[in-house]
Amino acid sequence: MIKVLIVDDEQMERDGLEMILNRHFELEISQARNGRVAIDMCEQLKPDLIFMDIQMPGMSGLEAIEQLHRAYPGTTFILVTAFAKFEYAQQAMKLGVHDYIVKPSKVSEIVKIVEAALDKIRAEKKSSEESKRYQSTIEKAMAVFETDVVTQLLFDHVHEVHLNQLVDLLHIPITQDKFVMNLLIPEEAKGAYSAVKEVVRSTGSGWTGAMNGRQVPIIVFRNSGESFRHQAITMAKRILSLRKPDHDAWFIGIGDVYGEIERIKQSYQESLIATRNYHQPVKYQFYSDMPALTLDFYSQSYKAYEQKFDGLLRQEQWQLLTEEVNESIDQYERENRDIMQTQKQVAEILWLISSILSDMGVEVDMPVYAVQVNGYKQLRAETSYMIDRMKYAHQAHSQNTDGDMIEQIKHYIIEHAHEDLSLEIISKEAGLSPIYVSKLFKEKLGINYISFLTECRLEKAKKLMRDSEKSMKEIAIEIGYHDPNYFSKVFKKAYRLSPTAYRSKTVT
């Protein structure tokens, strides 16, 4: 119900106006005896319409309106004056006064003025509600876009049409410097993912990626007003505050800061490395604070190592892979290497294998030795056990063939193209990691999933343009685009014609 406040220093005038309003309208009516009381009442009442007498002791009606208009700009005002020629009209117009009533006025004239004011208020309320619904829908869509942008930036599955437009829609400026944080969440705490996204979003300086196994990547844009370490630690502590007391396995690795957007993948790799030893009292680790690694993760020899393991894993040559690792252990033993140093180097090799598997979509636990080994025999046994665990995870993942899986994913996208689809949603439906779904599209179809989704949506849009009289806005919403302008940009990029020009060309 619309709320009304009548402000007049004369009780009889207030009661008379209230009686007229009650006879002709259904309103929630309150009274105030002067402008000062009205200002105090509005803080609690929040009226939609205020009838304000001009001549009142202490504070004039116009002075009261000036203060109320600043505090509640959406409120509608009707002035009540005893002057037939309203000399305050110009000042009142500046304050947004809707109309005025001259005392005394015919009931019919008052009713006519009030009807017009109520129509205005209802129209504004309807517009405001539609705007809120639209904004809510956009915000939900933004959450979907956000995970996809992070995936595209970190895993090089960039789609040239969408990336810049999605970045614009997210309303978080890409600053010159940026870094990546990688959060490890234990299996039993995966339900906290949404809360993590909300914490990151509330900072206004980060994007959260899709959960990949236990890992949640977060791209953070540098705040110029604070140091890198302070910003990273503050965000890490806010995220870690979400964990329950018995969930000790939360951990955050923090990569170095880089300027070029292309180097964000390097910060991501560093954030992963920083999570290798997550059994620490302090639940975050800067890559730059870690002891020197035995493997140079950016050297040519490491790249060769990575390529060899990648080939063996994709061919499921587990026996050969195990022999490669054991051969390294044998070499270290022949060189009389310190057993602790050797264990550290083998742990880095196992971490490399697990990261390749993770990129293939296989969810594996982080390979961490449960104990400090006391000899090479024990090291071989512990290493074989961890390789076997990764092998079983890979075999379980490989039960579905890639060919069957891509067809299932394609069918799901076609059926749900009008919804807010994301890598996260599709991967959950397929039982795969978001990264693997993205790679599967690139490898099997030569395009990424956004291209396929866009193609499905635009084909339906063209059909609707030919076979219906729906507006472009209605078509955009029906095929899954909440922003008609964004739909128009995507359509024009694909067909070199605006939607309107395409419809005009095909219909004629």
Automatic annotation (TrEMBL):
Keyword Secreted tagged: no
Residue stretches in coiled coil: 315-345
HTH araC/xylS-type domain residues: 407-505
Xref: Pfam families: GGDEF_2, HTH_18, Response_reg
Start and end residues of each Response regulatory domain: 3-118
Highest taxon listed in the record's lineage: Bacteria
PROSITE patterns linked to this entry: HTH_ARAC_FAMILY_1, HTH_ARAC_FAMILY_2, RESPONSE_REGULATORY
One function term, GO molecular function aspect: DNA-binding transcription factor activity
GO biological process, one term: phosphorelay signal transduction system
Modified residues (4-aspartylphosphate): 53
The UniProt record lists the keyword Phosphoprotein: yes
Keywords in alphabetical order: Coiled coil, DNA-binding, Phosphoprotein, Transcription, Transcription regulation
Cited PANTHER family: ARAC-FAMILY TRANSCRIPTIONAL REGULATOR, HTH-TYPE TRANSCRIPTIONAL REGULATOR EXSA
Protein name as annotated: AraC family transcriptional regulator
Organism: Jeotgalibacillus alimentarius
